[in-house]
Amino acid sequence: MNKEQLDLLQKDFIVCKNYLRKVASTLVDEGISKYPIFVALFDETDIDIGIPILRKEELGTSYTFHASHFEDFTNKNIVIEEKRAAFMENFKDPKLFCCIFVVSYEESNFVFIPYDNEVTWEPTQRELLN
Description:
Distance between the termini: 13 Å
Shape: globular
Strand order of the largest sheet: 2-3-1-4-5
Structural class: alpha+beta
């Protein structure tokens, strides 16, 4: 993920982190998933992951966000069976970190952003996840 896109994501995150945290808590508290994932779409990518919850046109942000979860990612083979354990091992506490799958024409990556801090954490063994 290039630095410019990461900077834009962090700026957008400041705008919508409280809402994303609330959605993540709902997914966990209602037993839908222990692993909430948000999909951040930079380009006008047509993607069938999760449901749209925040549109960049409405917020004036650079990214559109969809709400999803780990089970959806495995059902759609975005995270393949052989990578499940590595993904779950790298997954951060959803009460403290927001898991975001960033999608652009160039690439797709998982990043974790702490809700209470704007510093992004990326998995140390990214090749095990993708």
